[in-house]
Design goal:
Layout (H helix, E strand, L loop, with lengths): L16 H6 L8 H12 L5 H10 L8 H10 L5 H9 L3
Length: 92
């Protein structure tokens, strides 16, 4: 049996579960996601194509495609127009 000496570990080398839960949760979406959700908030009738055109006109950093915006809507559960109105009105 071989005994290995203790290896010195500093406190900055790892994060315990308690330290991770103490830190504030910061959720930042992509620029396109934030832009699309703001447009839906201001106008629930907006279409995916209109969001893409407006995003490209503003000079967005990432590429905007129909499926990309569709997936943003799906993740946020606002695919149906009724769901978009609820989102715009602040209801879930």
């Amino acid at each position: 049996m071989t005994v290995v000496e203790n290896i010195a570990v500093s406190d900055t080398d790892h994060v315990t579960r308690r330290q991770a839960s103490d830190s504030p949760l910061i959720t930042t979406g992509s620029g396109l996601e934030v832009f699309a959700l703001q447009m839906v908030k201001s106008d629930p009738f907006v279409t995916i194509s209109e969001i893409c055109l407006q995003y490209e006109r503003t000079g967005g950093a990432e590429s905007c495609g129909w499926w990309h915006v569709f997936n943003i809507f799906r993740r946020n559960r606002i695919l149906r127009r009724k769901s978009r109105f609820r989102y715009a009105w602040g209801r879930s």
